Amino acid sequence: MGGSASIISTVLGTVGGLIQHKPDSSGDMEKERKAREEQQRKKEADARRRDREKINEARNLEKKRNASTLSNGAASLVEEEENNPTGLKNKLGE
């Protein structure tokens, strides 16, 4: 019976030590959780910024394309080589 009493006291001592140590580790876990949340917020903010940049770039390209189409008329829709009769003859082998 003396052996089981020492086992019980050892188990209770270990559990007591874990309970006392728990607040420190939960504080560390809380810090780690906050750091992960902050990192996730930064990733999401970077993704939103990149999306905005892509949208702005697409808008600028669309504006340039519309401006060149309107200023040059239908000729801006066709490539230069197709407008050049000698270039077309060279392509066809004449």
Automatic annotation (TrEMBL):
Taxonomic source organism: Pseudodesulfovibrio nedwellii
Highest taxon, organism lineage: Bacteria
Basic and acidic residues bias: start-end ranges: 21-65
Region (Disordered): 1-94
Source species taxonomy: Bacteria, Pseudomonadati, Thermodesulfobacteriota, Desulfovibrionia, Desulfovibrionales
Name of the molecule in the record: YtxH domain-containing protein
Polar residues bias (residue ranges): 1-12
